[in-house]
Amino acid sequence: MSGIQEKADDHVANVGSILESPAIETFYPEMASRLVGKYGHSKGWKRNRLRTAHGFTIDALGLDAAARGAKLDDARPDFIVFDDIDEETDSLATVEKKVKQLTRKVLPAGARDVAVLGVQNLVHPDSVFAQLADGRADFLHTRTVSGPIPAIRDMEYRQDEGGRFVITGGTATWAGQSLQVCQENIDDWGFSAFMAEAQHEVGAPPGGLYSHLTWRRCTFAEVPALRRIVVWVDPAVTDKDTSDSHAIQADGIDGAGTIYRLFSWEGRTSPLDSLKRAIRKAIELGAEKVGVETDQGGDTWEIVYRQALREVLDEIEAADPTLVVKVPKFDEDKAGANLPPYRGLYWMIRT
Question: Whole-angstrom Cα distance, residue 323 to residue 167?
Answer without folding.
Answer: 66
